[in-house]
Design goal:
InterPro entries: GGT_bact, GGT_CS, GGT_lsub, GGT_peptidase, GGT_ssub_C, Ntn_hydrolases_N. By secondary structure, the protein is of the alpha+beta class. The chain is built from 21 helices and 19 strands. The protein has a domain of about 35 residues. α4 packs parallel to α6. Bound molecules: 6-diazenyl-5-OXO-L-norleucine.
Length: about 600
């Protein structure tokens, strides 16, 4: 993509240059050795304050969004399990520890890189539309989308895939018995854990929805109907029973037997669409990943039904020819190039992408260098014009639903997985007696062509609802390799922002050569074509950068991105893990080389 250099650009470059000099002088005066990091909003925590969010190791690295979940994964490795055992234990533990984000009633994606074969396997355990679902499911007879129907209550739920997915992967590649990988999650559900700030916030925000369904109320609200607060003990005995049944019976313990009976009875009672055929017919798909390159690096990411991998490759293809290295990450010109590439990828998503088991998608073309070259000739010198669209509205702030974890071992095996129930506590429906939340993934379909979903993303009929189809996703577990070896593995929650956050972190690390922590902590921005906003997280761009972007026609808004990137880098024989400092995750290595520990971090599991 070549941007026309107008006289305005020279003025901009001059302004940016003066700003950098000023920042450098001020920073030198205040003792900051890396002035440019401050200018672009880098978190500048000292090493000691980073404990928990950054770790180093040689034997393993585990980065998840839950303290107990990271420990569950480590327990597997300590017992002689492999990365898949650790990933399975983390998945089930996260289903307990982050019931607002993921769970047995959800689905997800996983990439596994095996060092000996160099093979990467993409596992798709995305939820599917029930067989009785129809294209106009969420429209009234006049063809208007009925607000809330695809996000709240029983019909928002698609057929869950998480249990089938994790057990399929574990069955194929795990070394430890199924019972062992489920043991930490069963323990955590039964004993309970202290509610942490993000969970308390999610419980409070969704208390009204949870009150509507008796099992949700009994699981997540106290006897007086108020949500659990920070520091209080949340126990999930019904969920413990379900997990135990899965430990005993495998997939049959979820897709058949008493758990399935409870789910189906509730579907009948509340007029849901999921049937026994849907549960028995659920299929995990092992797929070939999406591949691309960025300079010397190979990009390996999630294929359809995720839009994430295709969009990421397209964004990086568009940026490869740009002089980003010379401009630096904070230059208005860089931000313009990146935002233009982001928009192009979302425009292509809207037009072309959908579940390719159902519709034809030109994946090879969209991810080709030739397409990026052709686009570069005509990408705009200015921001795109605002769109007048039905339902075009500002993006809602993201609450950090969904979850991602990355695990690596000393042999170079890596697992990167994003799992979700979509919104906070999904549909708000909990299966009675079984203690898990049903997703609201049906909202990721296009309820009507051009109508934005919960994340403001628009799509066309390619992503229309059809029986058994998987809704398009943004979740993008990603791996970067060089000479066949993993260099960086990462992923994030945050709906459509997942893709742009991953692109930014990858650019920060690979292109701008920032240390991993800074690459993750750096200021984030996002543009998804519709709505026509260039979103930047607080505190926002430097004032002169914002002015320069506004002069180019961008509508710049300050808003949290919600991304919580969980990344592992392989740096020589050192594994380097970073759990986004914006979140509450835990990076666990075996402290190699040893770091001072912060005694303030409390153990989440109370003693018996
Ligand atoms: O699959 C998707 O793209 C969404 N269901 C993911 C939702 C999500 O990341 C929400 N997180 N903040």
């Amino acid at each position: 993509m070549r941007l026309k250099r107008s006289p305005g650009w020279r003025a901009l470059a001059g302004m940016a240059g003066r700003a950098l000099v000023l920042v450098a002088v001020l920073a030198a005066a205040f003792g900051c050795s890396v002035p440019f990091l401050r200018e672009v909003g880098y978190a500048t925590l000292a090493q000691g304050e980073r404990n928990g969010h950054e770790a180093f190791g040689r034997d393993y690295m585990i980065v998840t969004q839950g303290e107990a979940s990271s420990r569950a994964a480590r327990e597997m490795l300590e017992r002689g399990g492999n990365v898949v055992d650790a990933a399975a234990a983390a998945s089930f533990a996260l289903a307990v520890e982050r019931p607002q984000s993921t769970g047995l009633g959800g689905g997800g994606f996983m990439l596994i890189h095996w060092a000996t074969s160099g093979e990467v396997i993409a596992v798709d355990f995305r939820e599917t539309a029930p067989r009785r679902a129809t294209e106009a499911l969420f429209q009234d007879p006049a063809g208007r989308v009925i607000p809330g129907l695809s996000t709240e209550g029983i019909r928002a739920a698609a057929v869950p895939g998480l249990v089938a997915g994790i057990l399929a992967v574990h069955g194929r590649y795990g070394k430890l018995p199924r019972r062992d990988v489920l043991a930490p999650s069963i323990r955590l559900a039964r004993r309970g854990f202290r509610v942490y700030p993000h969970l308390a916030q999610a419980l409070l925000a969704r208390a009204q929805a949870l009150r509507r369904f008796p099992a949700a109320r009994a699981t997540f609200l106290k006897a007086d109907g108020t949500p659990y607060r920070e520091g209080e003990l949340l126990r999930q005995p019904d969920l413990a029973r379900t997990l135990e049944t899965i430990a005993e019976r495998g997939t049959a313990g979820f897709y058949a037997g008493w758990v399935a009976d409870a789910l189906l009875a509730q579907q009948r009672e509340l007029n849901g669409l999921i049937t026994r055929d849907d549960l028995e017919g659920y299929q995990v798909r092992f797929r070939a990943p999406v591949l691309g390159t960025y300079r010397d690096y190979q990009i390996v990411s999630m294929p359809l039904p995720s839009a994430g991998g295709i969009q990421l490759v397209e964004i990086l293809n568009l940026l490869e020819a740009q002089p980003l290295g010379r401009l630096g990450p904070s230059a208005a010109e860089t931000i313009h190039s990146v935002a233009a590439a982001m928009q192009q990828s979302f425009a292509d998503r809207a037009r072309y992408l959908g579940d390719d088991d159902f519709v034809r998608v030109p994946v090879a073309g969209l991810t080709s260098k030739a397409y990026a070259r052709a686009l570069s000739q005509r990408l705009p010198a200015r921001a795109r014009k605002p769109w007048e669209l039905e339902g075009d509205r500002p993006l809602p702030p993201e609450g950090g639903e969904t979850t991602h974890f990355t695990i690596a071992d000393r042999w170079g095996n890596v697992v990167s997985s994003t799992q979700t129930i979509n919104g906070w506590f999904g549909s708000g429906v909990v299966v009675p007696g079984a203690g898990f939340v049903l997703n609201n993934e049906m909202d990721d379909f296009s309820a009507k062509p051009g109508m934005p979903n919960k994340f403001g993303v628009v799509s066309d009929r390619q992503n229309a609802i059809a029986p058994g189809k998987r809704p398009l996703s943004s979740m993008a577990p990603t791996l970067v390799r060089k000479n066949g070896r993993p260099v960086l593995a990462l992923g994030s929650p945050a709906g459509s922002r997942i893709i742009t956050c991953i692109a930014l972190v990858a650019l920060n690390y690979l292109q701008f050569q920032l240390p991993l922590y800074e690459a993750v902590a750096a200021l984030r921005y996002h543009h998804q074509w519709r709505p026509d906003e260039l979103e930047v997280e607080p505190p926002g761009f430097a004032p002169e950068t914002a002015r320069a972007l506004e002069a180019l026609g961008y509508r710049v808004v300050n808003r949290d991105s919600g991304c919580k990137v969980q990344a592992v880098a392989v740096e020589g024989d050192r594994l380097h893990g970073v759990s986004d400092p914006r979140g509450e995750g835990l990076a666990l290595g075996e402290d190699w080389p040893p770091l001072a520990r912060d005694p303030r971090r409390r153990a989440p599991i109370p003693p018996d």
